[in-house]
TrEMBL record:
Signal peptide: none annotated. NCBIfam families: transpos_IS200 (NF033573). It comes from the Bacteria. This is Transposase IS200 like. It comes from Trichlorobacter thiogenes. Pfam families: Y1_Tnp. InterPro entries: Transposase_17 (IPR002686), Transposase_17_sf (IPR036515).
């Protein structure tokens, strides 16, 4: 969970964090400096709230991401 100053858009901050962290994790795990293009690490979505969701709702959202990603991938392969 994080707080984003109003001068930055949520999507810009999340995209930056996901992009940089995925590259860093790839480099550490694979031991290479290049070759991350075309690979995916994070799920596509994120949860943002301006009204204050409770922590349990956020945890449930994160828990359900793996199931939702698998379903979306299955739907895509069946109906390209």
């Amino acid at each position: 969970m994080l707080s984003i100053p109003p001068k930055y858009s949520v999507s810009m901050v999340i995209g930056y964090l996901k992009g940089k962290s995925a590259i860093h994790i790839h480099r550490k795990a694979e031991g290479v400096k290049k070759g991350f293009i075309g690979r995916h690490f994070w799920s596509r979505g994120y949860c943002a709230s301006t009204i204050g969701l409770d922590e349990e709702m956020i945890r449930a959202y994160v828990r359900d991401q793996e199931h939702l990603d698998k379903q979306e991938e299955l739907d895509f392969t069946q109906n390209p």
